[in-house]
Amino acid sequence: MSAVAEKREFIFTDQDFDYIRELVYTQTGIDLSEGKRDLVYNRMTRRLRALAITSFSDYTRYLKGGNGEQELSNFINAITTNLTSFYREMHHFEYLGNEFVPELMKLHAVDKRIRIWSAGCSTGEEPYSLAMTLREAMPSIDSWDVKILATDLDSNVIETGRAGVYSQERVEGISNDRLKRWFKKGSGENAGKVKVHPDLQSMISFRQLNLMKNWPVKGPFDLIMCRNVVIYFDKPTQTKLFSRFANYLSNSGRLFVGHSESLAKVSTDFELIGKTVYKKSS
Predict the structure, then answer these.
(1) What is the dihedral of CA 142, 147, 152, 155, to 10 degrees?
(2) N or C: the chain end with fewer CB closer than 10 Å?
(3) Is pLDDT above 50 for 20?
(4) pLDDT tens per residue, range 141-159
(5) 136 — phi, psi (to 5°)?
(6) Span 56-71, pLDDT tens digits
(7) Can you tell me the distance from the alpha carbon of 221 to that of 146, in angstroms, rounded to the nearest whole number?
(8) For position 45, what pLDDT does the model report?
(9) Is residue 224 within 8 Å of 245, Cβ to Cβ?
(10) How far is 222 from 243, CA to CA, in rounded Å?
(11) Spatial separation of the C-alpha atoms in residues 126 and 208, rounded to whole Å
(12) Which positions are catalytic?
């Protein structure tokens, strides 16, 4: 053990790290590399302190014991990454509003039904950005049946998204026109915060969902956004996931992935038609 490791608050052995890596993989599909050791230590120390546990070995025994199922949700919430912002990767929202929404309105002129899935929605900025884009691109949206499903592995971020309350700093990149239209400034004890408009909230259903488990959702979806999620998965897991997405996507649907993600050599179910924009293969 190194001098640095000896100075740590908690003993963290190779066996502890290997057990946590395996548990994370089986529960979430996330493949933690050796380089994530410090990240795991820093994230999990909060749980050890909260439970008054003095070593990682004791914590892994706790997970294996009778309280493990109850602690598993806290464990997953602590280990997962939730980096997001409003209109992140703006080109997706421009494509949706300028090109895909007009196409969807023609395709669904009769049933007037549009379904979108934000898979890995984090604290809600992505689905709310989707809702704003749809409302701005569809003046007659209130006469349509438009719903957005927003899911994430982390139950804590789901609650944040459902509440729709954000700090002023989180909306600094949004134009003044959009801020006035879609957000209400807080006052008093809520000063420095904003709340999203009820018209946006009414379009979105937030649910906790593990992409590696059963999907209690109904398709088909016209658009699935799964961005900056699969980069944490190994190739076999990515292949399986995209195959499942293809089964839930309509034949005319679109799949948006993150800027550092590609389906090349991973999936034959989709073909690239734009910058990280895919459609189902013919």
Answers:
(1) 60
(2) C
(3) yes
(4) 999 999 999 999 999 999 9
(5) -75, -30
(6) 999 999 988 877 677 8
(7) 11
(8) 92
(9) yes
(10) 16
(11) 15
(12) 43, 152
- CA-based torsion, 35, 260, 174, 222: positive or negative: negative
Q: Whose CA is closest to 203, among 130, 109, 139, 253?
A: 130
Please count the other Cβ atoms lying within 10 Å of the Cβ belonging to residue 198. 10
Residue type, 197: H
Distance CA 219, CA 250 (A): 8
Q: Extract the tokens encoding 184.
A: 């209400």
- Residue 253 corresponds to which tokens in the numbers above? 């649907």
Pairwise CA distance, residues 166 & 148, whole Å: 20
Give the integer Cα–Cα distance in Å for 136 and 124: 18
- 63, 51 contact by CB (below 8 A): no
pTM score > 0.85 for this model? no
Name the residue with tokens 């890995």: 120
Q: How far apart are CA 17 and CA 94, in angstroms?
A: 42
List residues bridging with 194 in a β-sheet.
Answer: 166, 185
* Closest residue by Cα to residue 174 from 194, 190, 159: 194
In DSSP notation, the chain reads: --HHHHTSSSB--HHHHHHHHHHHHHHH-B---GGGHHHHHHHHHHHHHHTT--BHHHHHHHHHSTTHHHHHHHHHHHHS-----TTSSHHHHHHIIIIIHHHHHHHTTTT-EEEEEEET-TTTHHHHHHHHHHHHH-TTGGGSEEEEEEEES-HHHHHHHHHTEEEGGGGTTS-HHHHHHHEEE--GGGTTEEEE-HHHHTTEEEEE--TTS-------EEEEEE-SSGGGB-HHHHHHHHHHHHHHEEEEEEEEE-TT---TTT-SSEEEEETTEEEE--
More confident residue, 24 or 257: 257
